[in-house]
């Protein structure tokens, strides 16, 4: 298919994919990459403190974001799910909007819990919290703006 310069919501890019699909593919690929990078010493500092779950994991992705084995697996699974959903424009839109909603909930959760308590089982820190807010806004924004004219879900 050819690109449609009019910006019509039904248009596709030169790859034959709708712009919302391309956005979802990029976002999902980043999540998958982040999940993998969380297991690489050096990219993840304090790697020797990486635990399965809980606030006791001292590992930090890029020296900033709290991670655990569970956290890394969730990122990777979220990325794989996003790539699968991006096969269709409607699926991509849903991944971005509903995934963004999940990150909005995670942002609120991270603000409300005590980071040194058992409730912080993923784990998250302040940097994670603010990244979750940016992801929520960005993903929902991409899904809404690029997915205009597409149904919210298939029937």
Would you kindly provide a written description of the structure presented here, covering whatever features stand out?
With 155 residues, this protein is mainly alpha-helical. The chain has one domain (19-146). The protein is 52% helix and 4% strand. The chain has helices at 19-37, 69-85, 89-112, 126-146, and strands spanning 44-45, 60-61, 65-66. Strands 1-2-3 form a 3-stranded antiparallel beta sheet. Helix 1 packs across helix 3 and helix 2 runs antiparallel to helix 3. Mean pLDDT is 86; it is low at 1-9.
As an assembly, this protein is: single chain
Q: What gap, in angstroms, lies between the N and C termini?
A: 26 Å
Number of strands: 3
Beta-strand percentage range: under 5%
Total domain units: 1
Structural classification:
mainly alpha
Q: Identify the strand order in the major beta sheet.
A: 1-2-3
The helical percent reads 40-55%
Unreliable spans: 1-9
Helix count, DSSP H or I runs of 4 or more residues: 4
Mean pLDDT: 86
Reconstruct the topology from this structure.
Layout: H1 19-37, E1 44-45, E2 60-61, E3 65-66, H2 69-85, H3 89-112, H4 126-146
Antiparallel strand pairs: 1-2, 2-3
Question: How would you summarize what this structure contains?
Answer:
With 155 residues, the protein is mainly alpha-helical.
Key phrases:
155 residues, mainly alpha, three-stranded antiparallel beta sheet, 4 helices, 3 strands, 4% strand, disordered N terminus
């Amino acid at each position: 298919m050819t690109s449609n310069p009019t910006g019509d919501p039904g248009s596709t890019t030169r790859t034959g994919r709708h712009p919302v699909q391309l956005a979802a593919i990029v976002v999902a690929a980043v999540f998958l990459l982040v999940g993998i990078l969380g297991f690489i010493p050096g990219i993840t500092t304090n790697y020797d403190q990486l635990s399965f779950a809980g606030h006791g994991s001292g590992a930090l992705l890029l020296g900033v974001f709290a991670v655990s084995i569970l956290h890394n697996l969730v990122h990777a699974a979220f990325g794989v799910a996003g790539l699968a959903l991006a096969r269709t424009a409607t699926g991509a839109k849903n991944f971005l909007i509903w995934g963004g909603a999940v990150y909005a909930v995670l942002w609120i959760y991270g603000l409300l819990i005590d980071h040194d308590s058992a409730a912080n089982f993923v784990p998250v820190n302040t940097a994670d919290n603010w990244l979750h807010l940016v992801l929520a806004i960005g993903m929902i924004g991409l899904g809404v703006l690029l997915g205009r004219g597409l149904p919210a879900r298939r029937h």
